[in-house]
Amino acid sequence: MTNKKLFPSVNEQIDLIKRGASEIIPEQELVEKLEKSFNENKPLKIKLGCDPTRPDLHLGHSVVLRKLAQFQQLGHDAILIVGDFTGMIGDPSGRNSSRPPLSFEEARENGKSYFDQATKILDKNKTRIVYNSEWLGKMTFADVIKLSSKYTIARMLERDDFTNRYKNGIPISMHEVLYPLAQAMDSVAIESDVELGGTDQKFNLLVGRDIQREFGIAPQVILTMPLLPGTDGVEKMSKSLDNYIGINETPKDIYGKTLSIPDLLIYPYFELTSNVSNEELNLIKQKLSNKEVNPRDIKRSLARKLVTMYYSDFDALKAEQEFDNIFVRKGLPDEISEWRPQTGVTEIDLLDLIVNVGFAPTKSEARRLVNQGGVSIDGNKIDDIKYVVKLQDEIILKVGKRNFVKIRCN
Length: 410
Fold this sequence. Notes:
This protein is α/β, with parallel strands linked by helices. It has helices at residues 10-17, 27-40, 59-73, 84-87, 104-118, 133-136, 141-148, 153-156, 160-167, 174-190, 202-214, 251-259, 266-273, 278-289, 295-310, 313-328, 350-356, 363-371; strands at residues 23-25, 45-50, 77-82, 127-131, 194-198, 221-225, 337-339, 347-349, 375-377, 380-381, 388-390, 395-399, 403-407. It has 3 domains: 10-225, HUPs (Rossmann fold); 251-328, Tyrosyl-Transfer RNA Synthetase (Orthogonal Bundle), CATH 1.10.240; 337-407, Structural Genomics Hypothetical 15.5 Kd Protein In mrcA-pckA Intergenic Region, Chain A. 46% of the residues lie in helices and 13% in strands. Strands 1-6-5-2-3-4 form a 6-stranded mixed beta sheet, with helices on both faces. The protein has a 5-stranded mixed beta sheet with strand order 7-13-12-9-10, with no helix packed on it. The chain has a two-stranded antiparallel ribbon with strand order 8-11.
């Protein structure tokens, strides 16, 4: 009597694995690993490295997480490597102030936050999380020298940004060179079969493949995913560029931000950030090519889908109804927070009000919002940065597209 197979057929697995992928290097090796896994009834180890310096995840991060989840659905082992050791180094080039060095405690706490959010996509009970300080922290300087001897400067300079900086006389620090080797040791430590990453990580992932071979380990297959464009349709999704959709944002924000994306992003968002089937994807492609179909209707379907994935059908319906009430029927949200001025205060500068209610961190940011025409009181746009708000009656302040507050003046 034979054991029940854990996995679908190799062809079925390949069809799902290739969905949305940019590159599989080399694809034939992946097929061979899947065949061996199928024949031996043994799951592959699928690795994804996590950067603990940015614990807040958005749809851009979800692209590669969804690919990891697909491997899970096929029966393979998902392993999240939290770079708590490398996170303590920060940005190896020193040029990125948004990636400062972290303390060990901060790196661990951010890693936990990453895991909690990632398991909105991954199966929590089937996801293994490990920290690379477990092996990198134990390496001696002799170990580092021995590791460095396994890779050449010529190979390291094949990385695009290193090549450009070297040609232009821009310094490259030694710990920048060591960084890909440290990441490669993660692959050695867990003996990963496949490593996932964005297209911008291709070089580092390939270093991992080479270093595994140097340690006598079967080299991992590399699978890269596209970098998701942000809501502006130009730059890659990023919190610093404010073109992101956070997976922890409220249903109304996920819904509203999704409707703001350019039409050309509808299909890639469905493909890379949703769980619709390949059959549904084909129907969506057909609808988008039909000039009689309004792309906005398909975009609304995408927005509902994303809210449902991270919340529920009920939350998606409520978010859509609230959006329609505000933007289609020009009404107000069902629930509006309230703010009361201090007793006896009868007027306040508009910029101070925007800051005090929490819609801008500084007066300069509040001034920018006013100058951009994004501020109104009781439906009337205010474009005077010196405007003084009379606090005599109840008023509704709106800042941006979705921020409302009721000012109760008595």
